[in-house]
C-alpha cells in the first residue's frame, strides 16, 4: 500500500513537473515568436513602398537618375523614375500637383509660382549642384578658339549667318545651330543671359533631349550647340568646348574649378530640385528620397559630371527638410 501511495505521488509530481515544463516551453516559444514578430514588424516599418513622382530638367536628370539608382538599392520597393520634360515641362506638372519633385536648371518663374499658389501647392527649393552651360562645336572646327557673349548673341539671334560674319578669317559657311528646346531651363538661361530675351534664330534645331544636340554637333563641321557641363564631359572625345570670355576679359573653359570659383561666368549656374511640402509630410517615401538625395547629391553630382556645393549648403538643406517634416 505504501508503495502504491509512493507510486501515485511520484506520478502526480511528475505530471506537475511536466505541466510546468510545458508551460515554461510555451512561454519561451511565445516569447521567441513575439520577438520574431517584433523584428519582422520593425523590418516592415523600414521597408518603404510606393512611388516618388519626378520630372523636369534634362540637365539635372543625370544627378537624380543616379540618386534613384542608389536609393533603390536601399529601398527596392520604392519606384522613383525620373522624367525628362525640361524645366518648364516639369513645372507645368508640379504646379498642379502631379509630381512630388521637379528638377530645374533655373529658378521657378513668377507665373509658375503664382499657378502653384492658386492650386494650393506649397514647395521648397533646394540647390543640388553647380553647372557650367557649355558651348560646343564640332571636333574638326579648327578656327574657333574662343567666343564672347556678344559673339554668341550675334550668332544665335541670326544677325550673323556665316562663320565669316563673326571673323572674316573664318570659313564662309552657314552656321548650324543646335539648342535645347523651349521647355528647357538651359534654353531659358541662355535666352536671358546671352540673348537678353531676343528671339533665337529660327532655323536652330531644338530638342529637349541633349543627346540629339550632341549628335547634331558631332556630325556637322559647321555646327554649334550648348547644353549642361555633364553632357560635354560625357562626349568630350567627339566635341570641342569653346572658352567663353568673362567680364574680366579672360577666355575661360568650363571645368570643375572654374565653375565652382565663378571665373567661368556668366554661364555658371546652380541646379535645383523643387519639393512639394505636402508630399514630404504625407509620403514617407518622398521624405526619405529627398533626404537621401541631399545627403548624396555632392558625390553623385561629381560622379555624373557636375560640381558639388560646399558641404555646409547640403547640411543646411537637410535641416530645412527636417523642419518640413
Spatial ordering of strands, largest sheet = 8-7-9-6-10
CATH superfamily of the largest domain: Periplasmic binding protein-like II
Main β sheet profile: 5 strands, mixed
Structural class: alpha/beta
Based on DSSP secondary structure assignment, what is the total number of beta strands? 13
- Large-scale geometry: elongated
CATH class call of the largest domain:
Alpha Beta
Rounded average pLDDT? 88
CATH architect. name of the largest domain: 3-Layer(aba) Sandwich
Question: Can you tell me the number of structural domains?
Answer: 2
Q: What series of H and E elements makes up the topology?
A: HEEHEHEHEEHHEHEHEHEEEHEHHH
What does this structure look like?
- The relative contact order is 0.16.
- The protein has a five-stranded mixed beta sheet with strand order 8-7-9-6-10. Strands 2-4-13-5 form a four-stranded mixed beta sheet. The protein has a two-stranded parallel sheet with strand order 1-3.
- It is elongated.
- Helix content is 49%, strand content 17%.
- The model is unreliable at 1-45 (pLDDT under 50).
- The protein is of the alpha/beta class and 325 residues long.
- Helix 2 (61-74) crosses helix 12 (284-304).
- The chain has helices at residues 2-46, 61-74, 86-94, 110-118, 149-156, 163-166, 185-193, 210-218, 229-234, 256-261, 277-282, 284-304, 311-324; strands at residues 50-51, 54-56, 78-79, 101-104, 123-132, 134-138, 176-180, 205-207, 223-227, 239-241, 244-245, 251-252, 268-276.
- The chain folds into two domains: 50-130 and 271-324, Periplasmic binding protein-like II (D-Maltodextrin-Binding Protein, domain 2, 3-Layer(aba) Sandwich), CATH 3.40.190; 134-266, D-Maltodextrin-Binding Protein, domain 2.
Amino acid at each position: 500500500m505504501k508503495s502504491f501511495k509512493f507510486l501515485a505521488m511520484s506520478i502526480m509530481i511528475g505530471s506537475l513537473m511536466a505541466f510546468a515544463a510545458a508551460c515554461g516551453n510555451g512561454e519561451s516559444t511565445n516569447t521567441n515568436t513575439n520577438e520574431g514578430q517584433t523584428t519582422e514588424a520593425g523590418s516592415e516599418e523600414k521597408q518603404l513602398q510606393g512611388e516618388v513622382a519626378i520630372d523636369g530638367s534634362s540637365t539635372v536628370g543625370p544627378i537624380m537618375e543616379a540618386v534613384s539608382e542608389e536609393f533603390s538599392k536601399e529601398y527596392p520597393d520604392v519606384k522613383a523614375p525620373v522624367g525628362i520634360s525640361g524645366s518648364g515641362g516639369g513645372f507645368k506638372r508640379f504646379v498642379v500637383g502631379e509630381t512630388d519633385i521637379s528638377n530645374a536648371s533655373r529658378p521657378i518663374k513668377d507665373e509658375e509660382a503664382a499657378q502653384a499658389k492658386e492650386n494650393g501647392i506649397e514647395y521648397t527649393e533646394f540647390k543640388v549642384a553647380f553647372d557650367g552651360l557649355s558651348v560646343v562645336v564640332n571636333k574638326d572646327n579648327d578656327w574657333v578658339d574662343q567666343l564672347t557673349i556678344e559673339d554668341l548673341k550675334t550668332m544665335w539671334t541670326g544677325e550673323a549667318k556665316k562663320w565669316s560674319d563673326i571673323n572674316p578669317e573664318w570659313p564662309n559657311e552657314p552656321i548650324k545651330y543646335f539648342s535645347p528646346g523651349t521647355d528647357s531651363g538651359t534654353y531659358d538661361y541662355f535666352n536671358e543671359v546671352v540673348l537678353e530675351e531676343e528671339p533665337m534664330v529660327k532655323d536652330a534645331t531644338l530638342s529637349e533631349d541633349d543627346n540629339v544636340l550632341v549628335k547634331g554637333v558631332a556630325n556637322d563641321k559647321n555646327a554649334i550647340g550648348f547644353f549642361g557641363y555633364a553632357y560635354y564631359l560625357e562626349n568630350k572625345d567627339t566635341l570641342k568646348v569653346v572658352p567663353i570670355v568673362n567680364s574680366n576679359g579672360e577666355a575661360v573653359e568650363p571645368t570643375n574649378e572654374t565653375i565652382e570659383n565663378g571665373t567661368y561666368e556668366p554661364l555658371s549656374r546652380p541646379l535645383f530640385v523643387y519639393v512639394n511640402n505636402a508630399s514630404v509630410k504625407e509620403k514617407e517615401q518622398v521624405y526619405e528620397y529627398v533626404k537621401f538625395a541631399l545627403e548624396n547629391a555632392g558625390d553623385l553630382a561629381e560622379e555624373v559630371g557636375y560640381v558639388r556645393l560646399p558641404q555646409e549648403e547640403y547640411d543646411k538643406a537637410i535641416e530645412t527638410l527636417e523642419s518640413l517634416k
